[in-house]
From TrEMBL:
Source organism per UniProt: endosymbiont of Escarpia spicata
Protein name: GGDEF domain-containing protein
InterPro entries registered for this protein in UniProt: DGC-Regulatory_Protein, GGDEF_dom, Nucleotide_cyclase, Rev_trsase/Diguanyl_cyclase
Keywords, sorted A to Z: Membrane, Transmembrane, Transmembrane helix
Domain of life: Bacteria
Upper taxonomic lineage: Bacteria, Pseudomonadati, Pseudomonadota, Gammaproteobacteria, sulfur-oxidizing symbionts
Length: 410
């Protein structure tokens, strides 16, 4: 019996992926830097308060202000990073600069450990151990995002304390040194695991972001395909009818006027019959390119099917609509199409219908514009015509500028 086995093959990680991941880690590191520096200086203030008695005041204050100067310099580094949005700058490595600041801070905390005197009362010695170990443990969330930063801070803090314990020679301190070594190993392993966990989380977030971008792009593409004609890139009939319904609703609610134009090409069949459908398709594409610039920003041009186009003029009077229709007709008449050494010229018959608060449904408007267009064809190709309702249920079509509505609104 055959058994199926699925091999999980991971996608190869490229150098660009590593670079993006490093950038994300740096951004996260620097975003937490302000809080980390504040916590660092606040801990130093607590240390001064605790050890004010056993340590000489001048040394303690000198150490405190030295650490403060380093933290101020690191704060300027953070501000510079955010000012430049993490972009690489000549001669500056943001990661190396942050590591250097962490090392300097760690060295000063290590020097603080040298203040330890084993002749102190036990509570002070315990306080020193707790302070330094707590400091390094608390630095994991902010520093271990980039593991070398955490290592650069922790090692200088713990090493002087470890040396002090080892050089004392007595069994108790050597046992303490052993515990510090175990702690150091555990804290470094914890920091390393934390860094890996952060890297995995950031990588997953990057993948999710890319996936979301792909889904959004696919949705945009599907939405575009659903509302646009694949041949010309113009809006399709479905989108045109949808926009027509919106215009009608607007006209009825706000008593605004719009204009619907139906345009049908003349002599288009000659191109198809003479040169084939490929030539006809190319003619439609070229015509769409020259017609779109004639629109206002609020208007819509659509291919309704075959060689028929629809134009919806938003917030437009009938007079203005007739002018725009004439412009479209002149544009088509001035267009010359060349295919395999042959020259073709087409005309357009146009129907114009006014949309106002008395207009019927969108289907009726489009049908009226279509009928007006064919009435124009009956008058002779390359004509304009528009539809006007004289009485309820009765429609008349007028050629050119002879419509009574035009003279009434002029």
């Amino acid at each position: 019996m055959k058994t199926g086995r699925t091999d999980n093959k991971s996608t190869p990680v490229t150098a660009a992926d590593f670079q993006r991941l490093n950038v994300e880690r740096l951004k996260l590191l620097y975003s937490m830097g302000h809080v980390a520096l504040l916590a660092n200086q606040a801990t130093a203030l607590v240390a001064v308060a605790i050890f004010w008695r056993p340590i000489e005041h001048s040394l303690l204050l000198f150490w405190f202000f030295a650490l403060g100067i380093i933290n101020v310099a690191r704060e300027f580094l953070l501000r510079s990073f955010h000012k430049h949005n993490g972009r690489p700058l000549p001669g500056i490595s943001w990661q190396a600069a942050y590591i250097a600041g962490a090392i300097l801070s760690g060295i000063l905390w290590g020097l603080f450990a040298l203040f330890l005197d084993f002749g102190w009362p036990l509570p002070y010695q315990v306080a020193m151990f707790l302070l330094l170990t707590g400091l390094t443990a608390g630095a994991i969330p902010s520093n271990a995002v980039v593991f070398p930063v955490y290592l650069g801070f922790t090692a200088p803090v713990i090493t002087p304390l470890l040396i002090l314990l080892l050089t004392r020679g007595d069994i108790t301190n050597q046992a303490m040194a052993g515990m510090v070594i175990i702690y150091l190993i555990l804290i470094i392993v914890t920091g390393r695991n934390y860094a890996r966990s952060i890297s995995r989380s950031l990588a997953l977030r990057m993948e999710n972001r890319e996936l979301l971008r792909s889904i959004t792009s696919a949705n945009d593409e599907l939405s575009f395909q659903a509302s646009h004609d694949p041949l010309t890139g113009l809006n399709n009939r479905r989108e045109f009818e949808h926009r027509l319904e919106q215009a009608l609703d607007n006209a009825q609610r706000e008593h605004r006027q719009h204009v619907c134009i139906y345009m049908d090409l003349d002599q288009f069949k000659i191109v198809n019959d003479t040169c084939g459908h490929a030539a006809g398709d190319e003619l439609l594409r070229e015509l769409a390119v020259i017609l779109e610039p004639k629109l206002r920003s609020s208007d819509i041009l659509a291919r309704l099917g075959g060689d028929e186009f629809g134009i919806l003029l938003d917030g437009c009077s009938l007079n203005k609509g007739m002018e725009i229709a004439h412009t479209f007709q002149q544009t088509v008449e001035g267009f010359q199409f060349f295919w395999e050494g042959k020259r073709f010229q087409v005309n357009a018959s146009i129907g114009v219908v006014c949309i106002d608060h008395e207009s019927a449904g969108a289907d009726t408007i489009l049908s009226d514009a279509d009928m007006a267009c064919y009435a124009a064809k009956d008058l002779g190709r390359g004509r304009r015509s528009f539809c006007v309702c004289k009485e309820k249920g009765t429609k008349s079509y007028f050629p050119g500028n002879s419509c009574p509505q035009l003279s009434a609104t002029a």
